[in-house]
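SAMPLE LOG
Freezer: B-3
Tube label: C17
Construct: single chain, 186 aa
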Amino acid sequence: MLSPSTYTTLFLDRDGVINRRLPGRYVRSWSQFEFLPGVLEALCQLRPLFQRMVVVTNQLGVHKGLITAEDVRDVHRQMSAAIEQAGAVIDGIYFCPDRSDCRKPASGMALSAQREFPEVDFRHSIMIGDSVSDMQFGQALGMYTVLIPSKEEEKDAYAALQVDERVDGLAQFAHQWLAKSKRSIL
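STRUCTURE (predicted):
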């Protein structure tokens, strides 16, 4: 691991990291979106430590016709507004609506973020997610990977997965990362 201060971009999955995942279903509207405990505070704590904070999320429900791309964008607009109201900013939100090369573990969303923010260096980035595909996405790009092992259906796959760090949630990551950052300054 590099010094915490050398990590400049934080990539975040959405469902299961920022908001409560709806197993077997999709968040179709803002009324179904529920921030996980401590997430808003964690984002506020992490914001000063990163040049960029980016959300990358697979949203296959669009391809399946269960939600529209505009519905996803509306949820993201309201999520961003709530995060800003809490005191943090998400610099970019990228979603893949289908099974194309943008879908994690493929790197399409990360490359889109890098086109928008050319200073993004994947070797100095962190990927936080709750799925095997999130970790594969980060690893393929050379990112530091942090797993929130919350998907019951991936429990067996988690055991064999090699990641840099495992945490119970974004709040725990923020607490630990802040402590590491303070130690590296001293």
